[in-house]
Amino acid sequence: MNATSSDVPAEAGPGRVLLLTTSHRVAPGLLSWPAWQALHAADRVLCADGAHPQLPYLREAGISVEEASPSAEELVDACAGGRTVVVVATGEGEPALTDGLARLAGTGRVRMPELELLPASYDLPGARLLDLVQVMDRIRAECPWSSLQTHKGLAKYGIEEAYELVEAIEEGDRDELREELGDVLLQVVFHARIAEEHPEEPFSIDDVAGGIVAKLVHRHPHVFGDETATTPEEVKEHWLRTKAVEKRRTSVTEGVPLGQPALALAAKLASRVRTAGLDVPLPKVQGIGYDLLTLAIRAEAEGVDPEAALRAAARAYRDAVQTVEKTQGA
Description:
alpha/beta; 5-stranded parallel beta sheet; 13 helices; 5 strands; elongated
C-alpha cells in the first residue's frame, strides 16, 4: 500500500524524485529491472500524459499511475516525509518540471528532495533510423513536392549526393562526411518509401534492409559460416565466388553499369578482366579516347583509382587557376 502523509513523520527527510524516461523506439512495457523495482517501491507514480504508451503495461503490472502534472512546489510537497515519487516522463522529458525544481533549489530556502534520472529503456544502435523512416513517411504524405516524386525524378539527386559524398571523403572534412552520408541515406529511404506504393510489386525499407543483410551474410561465409579467410585477398575470393554463383553470368562484363563515369567504367572493366585472368588485347585504334582507356587500365593494374587521381589533378589545376587569377587581378 502506498504511504500517505500521516504514515511517515516529517523528520524522515525530503524524499526523492525519480524521473523515469523511456524510448519510443523500444516496444512499450520493455523496461529495465531497476525501473520496475523503482515503480513498485514508489509511494506515488505520476504521469502528465494519460495516453502515454507505457501506462497500460504499468497498470497491468499492478502499478497505480496518477494522471497529474504537478508544479515543482507540488512535487516537493509530495515527497515530504521521505516519500519517493516516480514521474513517468513524456517524450519531451518534462523540461518545465526540472527547470522549476532547479529554480527552487537555487533559492536555498527549500529543502529539496533527491532528484534522480532513471532511464527505463535505451535506444539500440541504429534506433534513429526508425525516426528517419517515420519522418519520411510523413513527408511523403504531407509535403506537396515530396508526395509527387518518382524513382526516375529522384535519380539525378542520387548521383549528385554520391559525388558530394566522395568529395567530402577526399577533402577529409568529417562534418561534411557525416552530412553527406545522411543525404545518401535519405535517397535510400525516399526510394523505398515510394516503392511501397507500387500497385503490383511493392517493397519497403525493411525489404531493402533484409535483402542486403541476406547478401552480406551469404557473401561472408568466413564470418557467418565455416569458411576461413585470413587475408583481404581470400575475402575477395570468397566474395567473387559466391557472387558468381548468385548471378550466374555468362560474361565478366555483365552487371557493369555503362552509365557510370568513363574512367570508372574503363577501370571496372579492366578489374573484371584481370580478376578473371583473361588476356584481352587493347583495341588497335588511335585517338584520345583510346589513350585514356590505356591510362585507366594501367591505373587499375597499379591499384590506382583513375577517377580519384584525375579529380586530385583537377583540384590542383583549379588551385593553380585561382592563383593566376589573384596574381593577374592584383
